[in-house]
Amino acid sequence: MFEAARLTSDFDLVVARDGRGVPTSALSEGEVELLGVAVAVAGHRAYDVDERVPVVTLDRLGGIADDNLGRLTEYLLDRSEYVVTTAYPEHSSVTGHEVDPAEWRVVSDRTGTPH
């Protein structure tokens, strides 16, 4: 895992591993996903979005290891009133409410016809 990450004034991402900078191309898929989450949470809090929108929505977290996804979920629960994410069935460490899209009630279809 990387030790730290920061944005330069030119918005270049600098990542440190073993005390040295590494290119983002050297990171694993899970590390890249975690960086994306960190940037999203930082922006959510830095611009007080959390005061207006008490939801963090995350999608496509397929590269994060099972135990890390559980830790990430716990971390986010302390920082947002609601956390909505997609999790693959193999992620056993995440508990929550499962939503089946087949059971959704659709308000309108693509043609604009109400149901």
TrEMBL record:
Domain of life (superkingdom) = Archaea
- Comp. bias regions, Basic and acidic residues: 97-108
Q: Where is this region: Disordered?
A: 90-115
Protein name (record): SMC-like protein Sph1
The species this protein was found in: Halogeometricum pallidum JCM 14848
